[in-house]
């Protein structure tokens, strides 16, 4: 008789183990070995976006859009500086290996240019049965959330009138059989989620958050684990179970705040509880993206991919550099080690402390910032070299940029090549159109912004466009290569 409880526990353990094995086997059956899993990036004018209400938010002119991107970037730069000073998130290294490493998830990215926001957007399916959402992909955020209603019936009123009037989709959590709240009394709520609130009326009450952004906006809601489904390149889909998400019940902030630009945020920051940690840990601890031209037309898509590796055609042209991940001053951002900038093949005289995090400098690669920010000791010599080369063109005054010109008769070959040089010898040389950018008819500007030193250099998404960027979290490397992103 004494052996029965132990036997019973063993049976329970065996059934649990078999369930895990069958779950992995079922997942693998949906894939061919080494086949990437990709999510399509959807363009603003695609019929798939009908009902999202995104088109109405487009600025009326190209110049208005650039000015909006500039405004958003200035605010985001303040947020980056604040997070790097105070963020202490950490993520476990040596992430687990398993049978899913050879697969990958690919998520389509849409150019934020077409949505009137400075970021790229991806479509995901959340819950069971699944509900579709268009989320802003953000490498500077470690919380994935969507606008949400929970246990309030069809007449549920959201706490903010703005949310009620918004045309975006809302996740109806009560309709999902896989939605599981995180209790406020749990160790996860108390110790692991740095932005959780201490409000806990009962032990089983949901763990609440108040996630603040620098643009005087915020997302308020509670944490839950949920199933997220991702489409595969073979037309089928696979799912990630128990992904930490935020059920945002209210949004605060001005209507022009960037978090209104989608149905929520897909947190791609380096953090133990971000979407990256969940997706990449099952798929080789890698993710990559390739950003289409910010002025691309509606028929162009690119992909955010988890797992796998770069396309064979790009493998030989990939350059690699070391990533700096998880440090107390880095927070959720993906930092790299630079040693210099060249223009026209000439290394510029820039003080060494500009590149060193511990001396007040450092550099991050950020998909949520559109333009590229250089701290003043780097900005001044870069602008001096480039404006000298473009001085033959008629200068046009614009508030957002230091140097703009009439592009009548413009010849791209006359522009010296800008390049950043990494500590381990790699070099990133973006196309000229990624830093001499179109802002209006017959008007181009140098797309660099100045920020104070001490401060952080930010390589923004316009500078990153038409390159594949592969983040190897286990190996701690960043790979990049020119690509059409199609």
- Helicity, in percent? 10-25%
Q: How many beta-strand segments?
A: 28
Query: In terms of structural class, how would the helical and strand content be classed?
Result: alpha+beta
Total DSSP helices = 8
- First-to-last CA distance: 66 Å
Oligomer: single chain
Mean pLDDT: 78
Overall shape:
globular
Uncertain residue ranges: 1-34, 43-47, 87-103, 112-118, 157-166
Q: Order the strands across the largest sheet as they lie in space.
A: 3-4-11-5-10-9
Tell me the strand percentage band: 25-35%
Query: What Rg do the Cα atoms give?
Result: 23 Å
Describe the sheet with the most strands. 6 strands, mixed, barrel
Description:
The chain is α+β, with helices and mostly antiparallel strands and 486 residues long. The protein contains eight helices and 28 strands. Strands 3-4-11-5-10-9 form a six-stranded mixed barrel. The relative contact order is 0.16. Mean pLDDT is 78; it is low at 1-34, 43-47, 87-103, 112-118 and 157-166.
Keywords:
alpha+beta; six-stranded mixed beta barrel; 8 helices; 28 strands; 30% strand; disordered N terminus
Detail the topology: elements first, then pairings:
Layout: H1 3-29, E1 38-40, H2 62-86, E2 104-110, E3 120-126, E4 131-138, E5 145-149, H3 161-165, E6 171-172, E7 180-181, H4 187-192, E8 208-213, E9 217-231, E10 237-252, E11 264-267, H5 275-282, E12 286-290, E13 302-307, H6 312-315, E14 319-324, E15 334-336, E16 338-343, E17 346-347, E18 363-365, E19 372-375, H7 376-389, E20 404-406, E21 418-422, E22 427-428, E23 436-440, E24 443-446, E25 448-451, E26 457-459, H8 461-464, E27 467-472, E28 477-482
């Amino acid at each position: 008789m004494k052996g029965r409880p132990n036997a019973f526990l063993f049976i329970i353990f065996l059934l649990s183990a078999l369930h895990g094995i069958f779950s992995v086997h079922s997942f693998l059956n949906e894939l061919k070995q080494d086949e990437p899993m990709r999510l399509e990036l959807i363009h603003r004018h695609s019929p798939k976006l009908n009902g999202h209400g995104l088109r109405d938010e487009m600025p009326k002119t190209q110049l208005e859009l650039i000015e909006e991107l500039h405004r958003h970037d200035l605010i985001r730069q303040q947020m980056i500086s604040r997070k790097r000073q105070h963020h202490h998130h950490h993520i476990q290294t040596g992430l687990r290996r398993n049978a899913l490493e050879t697969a990958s998830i690919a998520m389509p990215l849409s150019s934020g240019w077409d949505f009137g926001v400075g970021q790229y957007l991806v479509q995901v399916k959340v819950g069971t049965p699944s509900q579709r959402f268009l989320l802003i992909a953000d490498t500077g955020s470690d919380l994935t959330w969507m606008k949400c209603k929970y246990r309030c019936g069809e007449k549920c009123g959201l706490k903010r009138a703005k949310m009620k009037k918004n045309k975006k989709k809302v996740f109806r959590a009560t309709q999902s059989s896989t939605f599981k709240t995180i209790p406020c009394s749990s160790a996860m709520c108390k110790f692991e989620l740095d932005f959780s609130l201490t409000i806990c009326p009962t032990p089983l009450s949901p763990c609440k958050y108040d996630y603040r952004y620098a643009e005087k906006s915020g997302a308020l809601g509670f944490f839950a684990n949920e199933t997220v489904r991702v489409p595969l390149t073979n037309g089928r889909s696979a799912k990630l179970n128990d992904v930490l998400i935020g059920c945002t019940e209210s949004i605060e902030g001005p209507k022009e705040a960037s978090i209104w630009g989608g149905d929520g945020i897909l947190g791609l920051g380096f953090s133990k509880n971000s979407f990256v940690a969940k997706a990449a840990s099952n798929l080789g601890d890698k993710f990559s993206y390739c950003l289409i031209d910010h002025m691309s037309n509606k028929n162009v898509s690119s992909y955010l991919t988890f797992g796998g590796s770069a396309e064979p055609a790009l493998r030989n042209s990939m350059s690699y550099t070391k990533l700096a991940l998880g440090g107390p001053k880095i927070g959720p951002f993906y930092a790299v080690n630079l040693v210099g900038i060249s223009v026209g093949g000439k290394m510029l005289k820039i003080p060494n402390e500009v590149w060193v995090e511990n001396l007040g400098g450092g550099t991050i690669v950020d998909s949520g910032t559109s333009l590229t920010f250089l701290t003043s000791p780097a900005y001044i010599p870069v602008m001096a070299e480039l404006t000298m080369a473009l001085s033959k063109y008629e200068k046009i005054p614009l508030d957002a940029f230091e140097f703009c010109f009439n592009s009548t008769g413009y010849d791209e070959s006359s522009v010296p090549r800008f390049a950043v040089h990494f500590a381990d010898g790699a070099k990133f040389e973006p196309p000229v159109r990624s830093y001499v950018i179109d802002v209006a008819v017959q008007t181009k500007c140098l797309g660099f912004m100045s920020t104070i030193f001490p401060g952080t250099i930010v390589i923004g998404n316009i500078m990153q466009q038409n390159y594949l960027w592969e983040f190897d979290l286990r190996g701690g490397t960043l790979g990049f290569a020119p690509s059409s992103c199609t």
